[in-house]
Write a structure and sequence with these properties.
- There is one protein chain.
- By secondary structure, the protein is of the alpha+beta class.
- It has helices at 6-14, 89-100, 113-122; strands spanning 19-27, 32-41, 46-54, 81-86, 108-109.
């Protein structure tokens, strides 16, 4: 099974592993991009990031970590936007979900987000919903 049940998400974070979620397309047909959320364990806290990258991949090039940032003015060291930090992994998931529209039942282990991207590419990069029929999360405009 690709998606992590909540106890496995919390367990991964407590072991210092990141969890990620593919959030779908951003941009326009002329300048396509994709987004994904990441909850990352830090020393004594948990950090929530959203990454937006140019959609430059194909079926044999899926490593979102090396895609150029969607915001071309972003410094490479600042890849990803830090949305916030929490002391509890559960609170980090809530923050990620509130700020990015991520869904609790769709978190994956670090690196598996590339499999989600591959499915997106194979499905023809659908803009309305994910290849398995779930709507893409709304971009949040709140306090995050």
């Amino acid at each position: 099974m690709r998606y992590l049940a909540e106890p496995f998400i919390i367990g991964a974070l407590r072991r210092g592993r990141s969890v990620e979620q593919f959030l779908g397309p951003v941009g326009s047909p002329e300048r396509p991009g994709v987004r994904y959320a990441e909850v990352r364990a830090a020393r004594t806290s948990y950090e929530v990031y959203v990454h937006a990258v140019e959609d430059v991949g194909h079926e044999s090039f899926l490593d979102l970590d090396v895609f150029p940032p969607f915001d071309q003015d972003a410094e490479e060291e600042d890849f990803g936007q830090l949305l916030g930090t929490t002391e509890d992994p559960q609170d980090a998931l809530v923050l990620a979900e509130e700020c990015t529209g991520a869904v609790r039942g769709r978190w994956v282990n670090q690196g598996v987000v590339q499999d989600e991207y591959r499915d997106f590419v194979r499905a023809g990069r659908p803009s309305g919903m994910s290849p398995d029929g779930h709507p893409w999360p709304d971009l949040r405009t709140g306090p995050c």
